[in-house]
Amino acid sequence: MGLAEDVATVRADVSNHAQNFFLYWFKKQPDYQPYFAIYKNVKKLEKLKDMDKFVSHTTAVLTKLLVFVDKNENAPGLRIESKKLSAMPQHIGLEEQHFTDLFAALLEYLEGPLGPGMDKAGWEKASKNIIKAIANEL
């Protein structure tokens, strides 16, 4: 598969992938869970799926990340999205490393559901472009 096909596959079940990705990310990098006020005190991660806000929030986040992936080779479009992201109050104080860690975890997670046909090189290139664009706006 190519990157566009991978993105379409994820979008086809975005809510499920979003929830599973966040659980994967919080298990892999537990220091990130406290960045999300409504999740920080949840000890049993599987309980997060019972929270309506978890479902809607994670879906919104992954949907936005996929918009970035769509625009990863469109410098002006990526810059516009990066400016919007950096202007959100919840992102004040975040640094490039936070986004590097986020995308590293996302790519690792996606290797499972996308399997060996995943366009890993495409995702890595897109991630680098996205992280650079975001870092320029922080």
UniProtKB/TrEMBL annotation:
User: Which Gene3D superfamilies is this protein grouped with?
Assistant: Globins (1.10.490.10)
**Per UniProt, what is one GO molecular function of this protein?**
oxygen carrier activity
Q: PROSITE patterns annotated for this entry?
A: GLOBIN
Classify the source by domain of life: Eukaryota
Question: Which key words are in the record?
Answer: Heme, Iron, Metal-binding, Oxygen transport, Transport
Q: Which Pfam families match?
A: Globin (PF00042)
Q: Where is the Globin domain?
A: 1-138
* Cross-referenced InterPro entries: Globin, Globin-like_sf, Globin/Proto, Mb-like_M
What family does this belong to?
Belongs to the globin family.
- This protein is called what? Hemoglobin
Source species, please?
Terebellides stroemii
Classification lineage: Eukaryota, Metazoa, Spiralia, Lophotrochozoa, Annelida
